[in-house]
C-alpha cells in the first residue's frame, strides 16, 4: 500500500488533496480543488468509502472551504477511484458533476444492469478468454464487481470551456484508458491535469472486454491520444498534475515513452503469435507483468487479460493477428499462422 502524501497548497487557490483508496494497491487518488467565484471546483472526487470521504472533507477544510461550498466537480473519467464520491458530494453541496459524454454513456449502460448481471458478464468474459475452472470457481464464490457511481448531470465535450466565470479550464478528449477520458488544461497557469492518461512512472491500464472485434480499438485510441497531448504547442512548459504518483514536467517525452512501451509489447506479442494459435488466457500468462503471473490475484489477472485483449485488437487492426476457433473460446495467431497452419 502506498503512503498517502499530505494535502498541498499549490498556489493561487489550487490545492491537491490525496484521497485514499482503502485496501487497494493504488493507495490514493489526487483530487484537485480550484478556487472560483461561486465556490471551489473539484477535479475528480475519489473513492466511495468513509475514510475517503473524511479525507476529502478534511482536505477541503485545510484549503479553506467547507464541502457544502463546492459548486461542482469535473471528472476525468468514470472509474470509481475518480468518481465514487459524486453521490455524497451532491448530497452535501448540491454540486453539479461534469464528464465527457462517452463516459456518461458507459455509466448509463452500467446503471441498466444489476450487480448480478454485471457479474455474469465478467464470468462470461473470463470463460471466453480461457480462464481455468479454478479461477472461474473463485470468481463465482466471490464476484468482484465495482459499484456504479452516480450519473453526472453535465456533459463536457472536447475543447468546451467549463461554464464557470473566472476559470478558463478546457478539456482535451483523450480516449483510451476509458472511452471518455479527459485531460484538463488550465492555460493561464501552464497546468495540465492528466488524470490517468499520462502518469510519470507507470503506464496506464488500457483494457478491452468483451472480445468482440467490432467493439472499438481502445489501445489505438490511447496511442493517438498520447500523440495529441505530446504535440500541444506548450507541452514542454506545462506542469502535469496526474491523478496518481507525482507532478512532473516533460509531457512530450513521457507521452512518447508510454507509446514506445506499448509498441514494444505489441511487437513481442506478434512474435508469440507466430508460434501458433493461443487463447487470451494462455497469451496473457506468457507475458511479463509487474508481479509473476502465479502470484497475481484474480482481479489483477482479469485486468491483465483485458489489457492483452486491447493489444490483440490493435494487432488485428494492423493486419498482424487473426482470430479463429469457436466464438465461446476464440484463439489468435499471426496472420501467416492462421493462413498456413502446420
Automatic annotation (TrEMBL):
Entry keyword annotation includes Hydrolase: yes
Metallo-beta-lactamase domain: residues covered: 28-244
SMART domains: Lactamase_B
Pfam families: Lactamase_B
Keywords: Hydrolase
SUPFAM superfamilies: Metallo-hydrolase/oxidoreductase
GO molecular function: hydrolase activity
Gene3D superfamilies: Ribonuclease Z/Hydroxyacylglutathione hydrolase-like (3.60.15.10), Winged helix-like DNA-binding domain superfamily/Winged helix DNA-binding domain (1.10.10.10)
InterPro entries in the cross-refs: Metallo-B-lactamas (IPR001279), RibonucZ/Hydroxyglut_hydro (IPR036866), Sec-metab_biosynth-thioest (IPR050662), WH-like_DNA-bd_sf (IPR036388)
Name of protein: Glyoxylase-like metal-dependent hydrolase (Beta-lactamase superfamily II)
Amino acid at each position: 500500500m502506498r503512503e498517502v502524501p499530505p494535502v498541498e497548497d499549490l498556489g493561487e487557490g489550487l490545492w491537491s488533496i490525496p484521497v485514499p483508496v482503502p485496501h487497494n494497491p493504488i493507495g490514493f487518488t489526487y483530487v484537485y480543488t480550484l478556487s472560483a467565484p461561486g465556490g471551489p471546483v473539484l477535479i475528480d472526487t475519489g473513492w466511495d468509502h468513509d475514510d475517503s470521504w473524511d479525507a476529502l472533507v478534511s482536505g477541503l477544510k485545510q484549503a479553506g472551504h467547507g464541502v457544502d461550498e463546492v459548486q461542482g466537480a469535473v471528472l476525468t473519467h468514470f472509474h470509481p477511484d475518480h468518481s465514487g464520491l459524486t453521490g455524497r458530494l451532491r448530497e452535501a453541496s448540491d454540486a453539479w458533476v461534469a464528464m465527457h459524454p462517452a463516459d456518461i454513456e458507459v455509466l448509463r449502460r452500467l446503471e441498466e444492469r444489476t450487480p448480478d448481471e454485471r457479474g455474469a458478464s465478467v464470468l462470461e468474459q473470463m470463460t471466453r478468454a480461457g480462464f481455468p475452472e479454478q479461477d472461474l470457481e473463485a470468481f463465482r464464490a466471490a464476484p468482484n464487481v465495482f459499484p456504479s457511481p452516480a450519473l453526472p448531470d453535465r456533459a463536457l465535450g472536447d475543447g468546451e470551456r467549463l461554464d464557470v466565470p473566472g476559470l478558463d479550464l478546457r478539456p482535451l478528449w483523450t480516449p483510451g484508458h476509458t472511452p471518455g477520458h479527459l485531460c484538463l488544461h488550465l492555460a493561464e497557469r501552464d497546468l495540465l491535469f492528466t488524470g490517468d492518461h499520462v502518469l510519470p512512472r507507470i503506464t496506464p491500464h488500457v483494457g478491452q472486454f468483451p472480445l468482440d472485434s467490432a467493439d472499438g480499438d481502445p489501445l489505438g485510441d490511447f496511442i493517438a491520444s498520447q500523440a495529441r497531448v505530446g504535440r500541444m504547442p506548450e507541452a514542454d512548459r506545462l506542469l502535469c498534475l496526474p491523478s496518481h504518483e507525482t507532478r512532473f514536467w516533460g509531457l512530450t517525452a513521457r507521452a512518447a515513452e508510454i507509446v514506445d512501451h506499448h509498441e514494444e509489447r505489441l511487437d513481442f506479442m506478434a512474435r508469440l503469435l507466430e508460434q501458433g494459435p493461443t487463447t487470451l488466457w494462455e497469451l496473457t500468462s506468457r507475458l511479463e507483468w509487474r508481479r509473476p503471473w502465479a502470484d497475481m490475484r484474480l482481479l489483477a489477472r482479469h485486468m491483465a487479460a483485458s489489457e492483452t485483449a486491447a493489444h490483440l485488437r490493435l494487432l488485428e487492426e494492423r493486419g498482424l493477428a487473426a482470430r479463429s476457433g469457436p466464438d465461446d473460446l476464440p484463439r489468435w495467431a499471426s496472420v501467416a499462422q492462421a493462413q498456413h497452419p502446420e
